[in-house]
């Protein structure tokens, strides 16, 4: 096939099909521009070989100038699914169905690429948005704070089912074919239904591995396990290549945060919520990972677990250099600043006296797609504080 004279510059042209490694026929699609027909035929030959099952270099015949790679006006877009075989985006990034992953002690199997997924809890919502699968979603629910600016437009394109958890009826009306959540409470009888119930209805579910019902099934909180979870979610959406892009970028950013060592020599009290007995970050959780990444000393590194309540007396005894405040709709950073600045004993803490406060959205303090963003934010704010 040669492009018609009416073919527009940069039009999408199918030059396949070719049989891929899975045994399915796949169409090769390219973006065309104005170029001589012989050159296009050479490119077509190379493109068909690219998607053929045999692992060998393209033939030594004529190729587009510059070798077999894309050139201005000719850009390969991947080996897309043939008409009727499913979503082209899944095939282009290596997705194939059915797909199974191990999650919280069970096997989750998605038989067809999701097109009406529902994400519950901000962590799961932003994981989906980070992976760029908003067009495969039918709804979201339950934010802790504002969605990150970089996901704002994608988030706005998806219906919001409820401010908190939707009822079973509202959830069912969205006709979900897949559901993911950050917390086990999402998959309960009081919310959208249990995982077993949803599975019986043909709706596979995925729960962030740090929140499994059975503590023995929970993954250790680490950046590597956050990235592993992102990989699983991308696989279930049929977009494994998207996870690779996100993870590589996050690793680069985290390396830069670690090299900056903005928290070196700084003792940090991480205050999540509650005023009677403050809820703080222990030695195993999102806050601990962030403090380690920026090189700061956790004032409560001797407290086991991700989170714990500690008495104010211990905060006074620690007398931290910096106070990190989680900002959530149900416990704002400003409300905590007001409280600690007006308490007769706490207002004398050196961090309060010197107004050395750092604010970070709650969603960036939990293991998920924006935890690295939280580390960078804390690092940048530490660097800006006067010493």
From TrEMBL:
Q: Which family does it belong to?
A: Belongs to the bacterial solute-binding protein 8 family.
Region Disordered: start-end pairs: 1-22, 56-92
Q: What is this protein called?
A: Iron transport system substrate-binding protein ABC transporter
Its source organism is: Propionibacterium freudenreichii subsp. shermanii (strain ATCC 9614 / DSM 4902 / CIP 103027 / NCIMB 8099 / CIRM-BIA1)
| Compositionally biased residues, Pro residues | 56-71
| Database matches in Pfam families | Peripla_BP_2
Q: Which InterPro entries match?
A: ABC_Transporter_SBP, ABC_transptr_periplasmic_BD
Residue stretches of biased makeup (Low complexity):
72-92
Q: Which residues form the Fe/B12 periplasmic-binding domain?
A: 116-387
Underlying gene = fepC2
């Amino acid at each position: 096939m040669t492009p018609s004279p009416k073919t527009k510059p940069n039009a999408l042209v199918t030059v396949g099909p070719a049989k891929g490694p899975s045994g399915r026929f796949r169409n090769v699609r390219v973006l065309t521009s104005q170029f001589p027909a012989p050159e296009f035929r050479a490119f077509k030959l190379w493109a068909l070989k690219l998607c053929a099952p045999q692992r060998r270099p393209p033939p030594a015949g004529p190729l587009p100038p510059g070798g077999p790679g894309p050139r201005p006006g000719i850009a390969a877009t991947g080996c897309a699914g043939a008409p009727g075989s499913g979503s082209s985006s899944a095939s282009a990034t290596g997705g194939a169905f059915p797909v199974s992953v191990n999650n919280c002690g069970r096997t989750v199997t998605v038989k067809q690429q999701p097109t009406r997924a529902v994400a519950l809890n901000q962590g799961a919502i932003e994981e989906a948005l980070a992976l760029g699968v908003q067009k495969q979603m039918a709804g979201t629910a339950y934010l802790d704070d504002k969605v990150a600016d970089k996901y704002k437009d994608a988030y706005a394109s998806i219906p919001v089912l409820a401010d908190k958890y939707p009822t079973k009826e509202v959830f069912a009306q969205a006709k979900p074919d897949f559901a993911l959540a950050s917390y086990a409470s999402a998959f309960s009888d009081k919310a959208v239904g249990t995982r077993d119930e949803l599975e019986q209805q043909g709706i596979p579910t995925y729960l962030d591995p740090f929140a499994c019902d059975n503590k023995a099934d929970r993954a250790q909180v680490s950046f590597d396990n956050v990235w592993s979870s992102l990989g699983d979610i991308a696989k279930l959406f049929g977009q494994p290549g998207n996870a690779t892009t996100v993870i590589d970028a996050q690793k680069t950013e985290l390396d830069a945060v670690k090299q900056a060592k903005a928290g070196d020599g700084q003792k940090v009290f991480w205050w999540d919520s509650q005023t009677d007995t403050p809820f703080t970050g222990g030695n195993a959780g999102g806050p601990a990972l962030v403090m380690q990444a920026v090189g700061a000393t956790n004032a409560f590194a001797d407290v086991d677990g991700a989170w714990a309540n500690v008495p104010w007396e211990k905060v006074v005894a620690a007398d931290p250099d910096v106070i990190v405040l989680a900002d959530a709709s149900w416990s704002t950073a400003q409300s905590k600043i007001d409280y600690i600045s007006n308490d007769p004993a706490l207002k004398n803490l050196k961090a309060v006296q010197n107004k050395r406060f750092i604010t970070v959205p709650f969603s960036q303090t939990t293991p998920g797609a924006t935890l690295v963003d939280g580390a960078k934010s804390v690092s940048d704010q530490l660097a800006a504080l006067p010493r």
